[in-house]
Amino acid sequence: MWKQWGICRGYIDDMARVDEELRVHGWMVHPTGPFGTIELVVDGRSVASQAPGIREDVGQVMSRTPRAHRSGFDFRFRPPSPRGRIEIIGRRGLTVRGRMQSTYRADLETAFPSPPAHLVTRITASPNFKAFRMEGLRLVTEFTDAIRRHRREPVRRLLDWGCGCGRLSLHLVADHVAAEHFGCDIDAEAVAWCAENVGGTFSAIAPVPPTEFPAGFFDVVIGYSVFTHLTEVMQRQWLEELRRITAPGGLVLVTVHGDFLGMFQFPRPNLRARLKAWRHGHRARSILPGRVPVPAVHRAGMVQVLRDRRIRRGGAGSDRDASPALAAGRERGPAALR
After folding, report:
1. Of 4, 167, 210, 234, which is most buried, counting CB atoms within 10 Å of its CB?
2. Which pLDDT value is given to residue 273?
3. In the chain, helix, strand, coil percent, each to 5?
4. Which domains does the chain have, with CATH numbers?
């Protein structure tokens, strides 16, 4: 069942210049175990391939995934241009079993201001700014790809809902994804840092809606790792608020914990039963203590409040499913997230 899914978990830990080259290193693993080879593709051209290296730290964290310690990669390449695109591809034999994508920037180390360590820690549970910066770059690559799939028109106003200290906003503003960029968060200190250092308009909000944004104000709303921290009641309240502030036919891109994370979290032999329970929200609290059964809320809430599109498993970051939805009104853009 799992071998046919070309998916993986992993991170690009950092991207840094070494003389005239870029070093890209991290880890990647399939839910059934390690890949035979890991390949680097730069701007559509395969430039290197290697056997997975040993990452004992990954093996400890991913203890339920077979031989997860065999997951490391470490590549160096000469960037053909200041900016471009890389893919990290996991193969077994000639068959692709996993894939990660990101933009690359030759100036990544110097292009962005660094938030204070305590603000970064609030977002990522670590003061590691390199990982914070690299994760933001990869996530924005994934979100902007989704925006292009769903919209033909330019984005006038975009909201980074739950912006923190700018993990996404730093890159969204630098890439001019929208003519006007907005961010909001309940962390007033992080919002103040963004307002001073990122560019765009940032505001502190209350933990519960409504916000002060006008109805139908945004063309695109992005919410990464927000619903995964809310109770079921608050999820439904915020779904209604996101619909209110998004223009008719506008795009809402949010992430949830779902089947993708479940494949790596739930051990065999009863993996399928546990995945089914996770998918439908039954017994979710007993399976993963402290976690809210977000997929159940997603189906009962997202489909009713917004017009939900097909979930993209592993569509954002290393452990979340991405779901696009259209606000009520005339649809705009291509039909489905593929």
Report:
1. 167
2. 58
3. 30, 35, 35
4. 8-107 (2.60.40.10), 112-268+300-307 (3.40.50.150)
pLDDT in tens, 181-209: 999 999 999 999 999 999 999 999 999 99
Say whether 50 sits in a helix, a strand or coil. Answer: strand
The neighbour count for residue 220, using CB atoms within 10 Å, is 26
Q: Which of 163, 177, 162 is nearest to 115 (CA)?
A: 163
Residue 305 has pLDDT above 90, yes or no: no
The neighbour count for residue 99, using CB atoms within 10 Å, is: 18
Give the C-alpha separation, 126 to 65, whole Å. Answer: 23
Alpha helices for 96-218 (secondary structure H): 117-124, 129-150, 169-174, 188-197
79, 108, 122, 191, 209 from 204: Cα distances, Å: 39, 28, 16, 6, 12
218-223 and 246-256 beta bridge pairing:
parallel
d(CA 333, CA 70): 41
